[in-house]
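Weekly sync notes, structure subgroup
Attendees: PM, AL, DS (notes)

Item 1: joint prediction request from the bench team. They want all three components modeled as one assembly rather than separately. Inputs as received:
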Amino acid sequence: MAVATRLRDLRYAFGENPLTAVAAAIFALLVLCAVFGPALVPYDPLATNSEMRMAPPSAAHWFGTDQLGRDIFSRVVVAARLDLGMAVAAVTLSLAIGTALGAIAGYRGGAVDAVVGRIFDTIMAFPLFVLAMGIVAALGNSVANIVIATVIINLPFYGRYARAEVNIRRESAYVEAARMGGNGAASVLARHIVPNILPPMMVQASLNMGWAILNAAGLSFIGLGVRPPEAEWGIMVSEGASYIFSGEWWTFVFPGAALVLAVFCFNLLGDGLRDMIDPRRRT
Amino acid sequence: MIAFTVLRRIGGSIPSLIGVIVVTFLLSRALPGDPAVYFAGPAANAESVQQVRESLGLDKSWPEQFVRYIVDLAHGSLGNSLTTGQPVMSDLIQRLPASIELTLAALIFAIVVAVPLGVLAAARPDSAIDHLCRGLVTVGAAFPTFFIALLFVYVFYYLLGWAPQPLGRLDEIYYSMPQQVTGLLTVDTLIAGDLDAFRGALAQLILPSIALGLFALAPIARMTRASMLAALGSDFVRTARANGLSRRTILFTYAFRNALLGIVNTMGMVFSFLLGSNVLIEQVFGWPGIGSYAVSAVIASDYAAVQGFILMMAIAYVLLNLGVDLVAGLIDPRVRYEG
Amino acid sequence: MNAPPILDVDALSLDFRTRAGRVKALDGVSFQVGKGEILGIVGESGSGKSVSAFAIMDLLDANAEIRQGGIHFAGTDLIADGRVALDEMRGREISMIFQSPRTALNPIRAVGRQIEDVLMRHGPMTRAKARERAVAALARVRIPDPERRYHAYPFELSGGMCQRVMIAMALACEPLLLIADEPTTGLDVTTQAVVLDLIRDLVDSSRMAAILITHDLALAGEYCDRVVVMHAGHAVETGPIGAVLDHPAHPYTAKLIAATPSSAESVETLASIPGNLPSLIRDDLPFCRFRDRCERRIARCDAEPLPVETVGEDHTVRCWRPL
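Output from the run, pasted for the record:
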């Protein structure tokens, strides 16, 4: 019954807004690139070729080649794995940890709530990208640290939402019933409250994915995190930026366009999910 | 009564300021390995590292280090920069006006475009303007700031030649720097009466401020449109219509002033974007502000400079949020009376 | 009724165009309001009472469409020419007050200024004069200390006071007709009486007419001169309040009366009306929309459109088998 309703919702959401279907198709394409990219690309993304350096787009090299003669198309496709991987890891961890912290704070109240609240407030007191810069600069220049930084700066969004929702539900009838049935706090939270707040949190997460990608790419652009010769969209744009003045636009436009496509796709998917789950909140 | 609320709000910022100072302190000590090595720099030998360790008090206990950090801050000292050799504080102060000018210009651009767009989109649902607004919001939220900035430079400087070369705030071959009054070149050149230099400074400012402002435009336009739609559909607007108030009065005095509340509440997030993206834009356009300073510091592992930058940005953000809160209190009398 | 009515609604039919279909919210609704009288419009939620009022005042969304019928006010056609006549008349000759008075006032504007806005709009008037008259309007609705209360915001006032402010705004330009849409819903019983007494006094003293929309038959009984009973977008019975309450002609009216608690009844004798309002989006709506809930139904009810039967002095009913 629930599946049938969801399928009907899906069809309505796609029909209502064909863009959502387009976004879903792009998402599928991106996942394809991320998972199978390295096996499918025509050239080795790391292979240099000094004779073919800075070649404009052609039949042989669809996106042209960069300053070391590497095929940009192959690099853009393969970079999907790293960029999407970082974003998915960051958002998943943020969602999990943030929800857990927020739920506990909302359920327990008191000192725990105050401390967790203070942690969230302090994170939010920074301009988020600046805080991410600081964390990566402090912990060291690596992909793992980009993920950690992104997780930290996103915690408050999930945490506050989870806390508010748990607060509302804490006194509701079915929670009372579960408590009276002898279930401990963790069990009540895990089995009764959290499953109910997950759908809107998932909407938050999908809307957040786009932002996580931009954040990671921004950090790479200024030289934090990903190092050459790794293929990652942000660092590719950064490397290509030096060649604007000689007119070799393909070095930065294609990886940049890939970024735009990915973020756009996740934003639309998030909107579509939100319309499906809570049509009242449409803007 | 109002003064009391203002003081209360200012007091409410203090925990945030404390939190920010504590976190920047922790970040500076959470470095992998020996902090003294980082502060001494890549060219140091064991002896100078030990000197640095002692002079910065890195061999003391953490609470002692924290107290020393606070004392230094109270004296306005953020340590010395490895790359410039100067005190970080004076580096930052010298470069701050450039960043302020850029961010201010971007903010003005974003508001001047986004608010009327959102109002018109809400007043004429499903019209061309409404679709333009919604399209801009969706697309604007997807473009990375640095990519837009590079596209701008490529199209408007390289291809079309409309914009000047992105080498900073003023092309000093053609124009002379004015006497520093506010630090904002556009203002100072006008004060000095040098209209040529004003035009030069403005020309350099346009591209980076629009690139920076575009990212702020999306949330402002979205919130304006949503708030206006909510206000126009509200009970009190219906009462106003029933009483025959003119379309203009309803749109501006009734709907828009109420919508302002939603817009002001978005500004916190908008400032977060602006201050963060500032770094990226300054990097692309070679803008001599604190953002590009921070990027060079990060690349050179100049930790004192990086921390100083983060602390300054964070304090600026806390103050900006305080300002937003106070403005919200001005617009909405209900907010004034709550805790 | 001897004098021509101030408001004449004639066979008004109104649809809402929605994605799921057309909602036939009003069908052939007719009633009149005479000068100086209070007409009550009663019925369940969803019966079309408020929709009728909003249709008169042109406050409905763009998807509302008047399919047929006419609305005439003091001789002027209110529907013609894209409803342009209403632009000048709203707030000046016809006014309306709403339920939930707190949300119906601008939350961030002083109540006195809001009254002033209405006065200035229908001017010509100077700021100072408007202010004077706004304070006078507040005094007229018996708000204590009107000079000070002029500067108050809605959130600082009680529900009853907010409703009085709304009445002050609506009456600021001395209209000929006041429409009150459930003005006392959400207010406590004492405040209800105060507000309605105020409305009745103002009507009596100025010879203004009023429409009182309510789901509470007892309230209508106490304050109205005549009443229109509505059910599912139909005006099923119209007449003097005494006649309708004592000798209801439509089965629905009788059921409504039986369902209304009064001090003489006990809970056991309260009757509920079986069934629900029919969905108005169906294509196959019957001629009589009450027939699924009516025990007096005959074959004729399904076969022919409803008549207008006169059952007493100025008392009409739309039924093939009136009581």
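Discussion: Residues 2-62 of chain B form one domain.
Action: AL to compare against the crosslinking data before next sync.
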